Amino acid sequence: MTLSVARPRKIRGEIIAPGDKSVSHRAVMFNAIADGVARITNFSPGADCTSTVSLLRSLGVEIEREPGPDGQGDSLTVTGRGMNGLEEPADILDAGNSGTTTRLMSGILAGRKMLAVLTGDDSLRSRPMGRVVRPLTEMGAVIRGRHNDSLAPLVFAGGQLRGIEFTMPVASAQLKSTILLAGLRALDKTRVHQPAASRDHTERMLTAMGADIKSYGLDVEIQPTELSAVDVEVPGDISSAAFWMVAGAAHPDAEIMIRGVGVNPTRSGVIDVLKAMGADLTLEHQREVAGEPVADIFVRSSRLRGTDINGDIIPLLIDEVPVLAVAAAMAEGQTNITDAGELRVKETDRIAATIDWLTGAGIECEGHADGLTIQGSGHVGGGKFNSYDDHRIAMSLGVAGLVSDSPITVLNGEVAGISYPGFWKDIGRLGGLVG
Ligand code: S3P
Prior knowledge:
Blueprint: E1 3-5, E2 11-16, H1 21-32, E3 37-43, H2 47-58, E4 62-66, E5 74-79, E6 93-94, H3 99-109, E7 116-119, H4 130-138, E8 141-145, H5 146-149, E9 151-159, E10 165-167, H6 173-183, E11 190-193, H7 201-208, E12 212-216, E13 219-223, E14 232-233, H8 238-250, E15 254-262, H9 269-276, E16 280-289, E17 292-300, E18 308-309, H10 321-330, E19 332-337, H11 350-360, E20 365-368, E21 371-377, E22 383-386, H12 391-403, E23 408-411, H13 423-429
Parallel strand pairs: 2-15, 3-14, 6-7, 10-11, 18-19, 22-23
Antiparallel strand pairs: 1-23, 3-5, 4-5, 7-9, 8-9, 11-13, 12-13, 15-17, 16-17, 19-21, 20-21
Helix pairs in contact: 1-2, 1-3, 1-7, 3-6, 4-6, 8-10, 8-12, 10-11, 10-12
The structure holds shikimate-3-phosphate.
């Protein structure tokens, strides 16, 4: 599907951020291996979380899914099978495009008395899995994969898990969660050392489910424990809300209210960076939902200036870099993003994909091994650009179209459905979609 977006003269509107993808994956996975029945509301409507649901069903987990009221996510009822109750799947498990499904489920499948094969689409089969296979193997799991056990399909063939002390080579919440999930079924305690903080939804949710898990600064320690089912009301996804934060701040005449956004401090780096760039952005009606901080975010047109983005804030905004590139292009001055080499191994190489469209839109920019430099001029040109089948690149291009001098056409825009199926409808509601 090819979609074109042109800049509306003015943007006024209210958006309800869809349910958070990271929290949705965890809510259904963790309840699947818990004791009891849980209800999950505002579950992410994206295809990635649906991959997790179908994969868990193939492992014998009973999950009922009902559509939620308009503007809200689906409701799920999950009947937990307990820590050791998953069934051997009758066929290959397909995680689609979802790295979170593949890595976290690797922690759940490791060391079980069954054979399971986990694969996904072309993008997923090119993403690094050795980072989870190596420590899980050290814990005693038997796992094989393509390319010297570093690429999916991955084959899980049992083993007995022991606790380990593991120093993570990258600040990745997926990797941390994989090891903690395996640690739940190990013979003794597991300790993970993180190089920098990454999203902590796993730690929060496992604590709420009764796991013996403790954080000591950047270290997390877990003891083998059973989990009790817990109901989860999923907060709105800040990674989806970020598109509207940038659109509102970068457009010359905009006011956007984004309702119900999860603002967990391990996810909210995008707010800090936009504020440092001069964005007029306020958090209202701050509250707590299911152990996660939530707020409404109001954003209006702002004079943006370039900034440096690097160091420990990178994992706290890793998925928002592609849309922050739009803010950087619309700012005055240079934005320099470094320490973000992980972007090269996401759904696509997001540094290369961003440089590709920025260059085509007439913006002076340069890619580096671990980031990019963007010379902001307050203008983005139009054109036809490749989404590289990456949901966040496609949606960043949609936001670029809301602020560009002439229309932007996005190839394969429907890939937004991986995390935000209502994205183009919301662009239309804000007056941006031309066809
Ligand atoms: C996620 C963690 C991040 C992020 C991904 C979701 C998660 O990946 O990019 O979209 O739910 O844990 P890494 O932790 O590998 O950086």
